[in-house]
């Protein structure tokens, strides 16, 4: 079995964003469940936060491929 | 070590990192995207927007039409009500007129009848008066003659002197009238 | 292709890797005749034809085709354009509509039989779309606020302690100019790349097991193929979701550029 350590690093780097995205959408679902009319306000916020958190995982992916 | 490097080089040559974009592909992507963008922008979006607008117009136009019809109906109703009221009013005036006219006709007739009655009464009075006068005149003449005759019969003396005779009669009548 | 050749050799199972995304030209030897490039142009042709056909006789009472086209268009126009961008959404609708249909079609190529290659797993194409989004939202913001005010609003968020600007300003700057485009392109690429890899893995694994001499292992190939089918459905979901997220984030970035402050 062969592979690069970079891929392992990528795997590690997804843990944080994974938890973060879970928290973000948990909060979003909570908010919408409590106040369905706030959906249109919460949705952009949730997705901005999601994009920001996922950025870390994506940086990990890039680095895994770029740094050999 | 050099072998390992060689291997990496080989691998790299065989499979360049998937996150390094190929310039040609970026250009292809740009061209394809612009192409699609212009096609959709010029051909598709205006049509859909037009359909949207037409639909909105149709819905709003339908509402406007319904409102107009409603308004028209209301106007017609108002018109009919007005006409009905006018007709009723007209009938009322006609009836009033007729009543007034009838009253005046009755009044006229009554006046005429009264007049006629008055006239007839007057005529009757006049004729009665005339007859009375006539009767008086004739009576006076006859009464004179009768009285003279009676007196002459009683007195036995002829009173044929006309002048005297009439004097006596006059006196008698005057006394008669005074005693009345 | 490389893999299907390799897996039949006697070296044991070789898992698919990034090399499987490099396809040789179908004819000639220019990159313009490789499968991804042809698929991209095919997607342009497909989307154009489909939507022109559905909107050609657009009327108040839609035909079935028009209804289908309008559902997609209305979704982008109202759910993404109007809800996210707000009052000025009208002029961005064609752009968002193009992004969504283009990405969705190219993603779906990944699971359509006989095509089976998500073009967005070649990084060049997501990068190209991201370039459009990147320049659009910067251009919109600079035209609306002016360059200096835009940079100032971007880097110096009101209401935080002064010394925090040391950390916050470079972070915000990097977010707007590096992180956003990078993540936008890489998210789409990564999802398509990984998803396709997953499908190849299960299909090739199943093939490898089937070609094995051991009967029990041949039986297990059924599970591998079944998983490839399950993951095909999962991929369908991911492909639609990624097209949606890409469009939504583009709209969000444009909305942020249009907003007076963030």
Question: How is the biggest beta sheet of chain A arranged?
Answer: none
CA-based gyration radius of chain B: 68 Å
Strand content of chain B: under 5%
What coarse outline of chain B follows from CA principal-axis ratios? rod-shaped
Quickly name the level 1 CATH class of chain A.
Mainly Alpha
By DSSP (H or I, 4+ residues per run), the number of helices of chain A equals: 3
Number of strands of chain A: 0
Question: For the CA atoms, what is the radius of gyration of chain A?
Answer: 16 Å
- Note poorly predicted spans of chain A: none
How far is the N terminus from the C terminus of chain A? 17 Å
Mean pLDDT of chain B: 82
Question: In sequence order, what are the helices and strands of chain B, one letter per element?
Answer: HHH
**Alpha-beta content class of chain B:** mainly alpha
- As a percent range, the share of helical residues of chain A equals over 70%
The overall number of domains of chain B is: 1
Fourth-level CATH superfamily of chain A: F1F0 ATP synthase subunit C
Q: How many individual β-strands of chain B? A: 0
What fraction of the residues of chain A are assigned to beta strands by DSSP?
Answer: under 5%
Topology:
The complex is a heterotrimer of chains A (68), B (180) and C (262).
Chain A: H1 5-13, H2 15-34, H3 39-66
Chain B: H1 2-14, H2 23-155, H3 162-179
Helix pairs in contact in B: 2-3
Chain C: H1 2-7, H2 35-56, H3 64-85, H4 93-108, H5 124-145, H6 147-155, H7 165-210, H8 215-258
Label this structure with key terms.
heterotrimer, A: 68 residues, mainly alpha, F1FO ATP Synthase, 84% helix, B: 180 residues, 3 helices, 0% strand, disordered N terminus
Walk me through the structure.
Chain A has 68 residues and is mainly alpha-helical. Chain A has one domain: F1F0 ATP synthase subunit C (F1FO ATP Synthase), CATH 1.20.20.10. Chain A has three helices and no strands. In chain A, α2 packs antiparallel against α3. The longest helix of chain A has 28 residues. Chain A is elongated and about 50 Å long. In chain B, α2 packs across α3. Chain B is rod-shaped. Chain C has 262 residues and is mainly alpha-helical. Chain C has one domain. Chains A and C meet through α3 of A and α7 and α8 of C.
């Amino acid at each position: 079995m062969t592979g690069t350590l970079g891929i392992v690093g990528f795997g590690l780097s997804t843990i944080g964003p994974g938890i973060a995205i879970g928290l973000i959408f948990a909060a979003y679902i909570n908010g919408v469940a409590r106040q369905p009319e706030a959906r249109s306000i919460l949705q952009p916020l949730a997705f901005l936060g999601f994009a920001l958190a996922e950025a870390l995982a994506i940086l990990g992916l890039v680095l895994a491929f770029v740094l050999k | 070590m050099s072998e390992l490097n060689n291997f990496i080089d080989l691998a790299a040559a065989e499979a360049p990192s998937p996150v390094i974009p190929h310039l040609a592909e970026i250009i292809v992507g740009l061209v394809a995207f612009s192409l699609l963008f212009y096609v959709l922008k010029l051909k598709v979006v205006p049509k859909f927007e037009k359909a949207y607008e037409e639909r909105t117009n149709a819905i709003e136009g339908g509402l406007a039409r319904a409102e107009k019809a409603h308004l028209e109906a209301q106007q017609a109703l108002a018109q009919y009500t007005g006409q009905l009221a006018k007709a009723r009013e007209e009938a009322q005036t006609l009836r009033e007129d007729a009543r007034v006219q009838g009253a005046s006709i009755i009044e006229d007739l009554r006046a005429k009848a009264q007049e006629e009655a008055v006239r007839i009464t007057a005529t009757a009075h006049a004729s009665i008066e005339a007859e009375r006068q006539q009767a008086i005149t004739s009576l006076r003449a006859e009464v004179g003659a009768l009285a003279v005759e009676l007196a002459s019969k009683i007195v036995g003396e002829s009173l044929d002197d006309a002048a005297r005779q009439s004097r006596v009669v006059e006196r008698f009548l005057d006394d008669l009238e005074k005693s009345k | 292709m490389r893999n299907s050749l390799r897996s039949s050799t006697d070296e044991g199972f070789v898992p698919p890797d990034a090399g499987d995304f490099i396809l040789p030209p179908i004819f000639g030897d220019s990159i313009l005749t490789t499968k991804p490039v042809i698929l991209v142009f095919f997607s342009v042709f497909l989307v154009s034809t489909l939507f022109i056909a559905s909107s050609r006789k657009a009327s108040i009472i839609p035909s079935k085709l028009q209804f289908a086209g309008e559902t997609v268009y209305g979704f982008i126009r109202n759910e993404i354009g109007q809800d996210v961008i707000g009052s000025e959404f009208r002029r961005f609708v064609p752009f968002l509509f193009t992004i969504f249909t283009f990405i969705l079609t190219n993603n779906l190529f990944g699971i359509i039989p006989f095509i089976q290659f998500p073009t967005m797993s070649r990084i060049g194409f997501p990068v190209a779309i991201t370039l459009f989004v990147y320049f659009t939202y910067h251009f919109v913001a600079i035209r609306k606020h002016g360059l200096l005010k835009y940079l100032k609003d971007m880097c110096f968020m009101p209401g935080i302690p002064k010394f925090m600007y040391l950390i916050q300003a470079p972070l915000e700057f990097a977010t707007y100019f590096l992180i956003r485009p990078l993540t936008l392109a890489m998210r789409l690429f990564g999802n398509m790349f990984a998803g396709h890899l997953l499908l190849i893995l299960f299909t090739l694994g199943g093939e490898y097991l089937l070609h094995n001499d051991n009967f029990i292992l041949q039986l297990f190939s059924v599970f591998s193929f079944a998983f490839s089918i399950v993951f095909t459905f999962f991929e369908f979901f991911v492909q639609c979701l990624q097209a949606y997220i890409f469009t939504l984030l583009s709209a969000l970035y444009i909305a942020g550029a249009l907003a007076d402050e963030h």
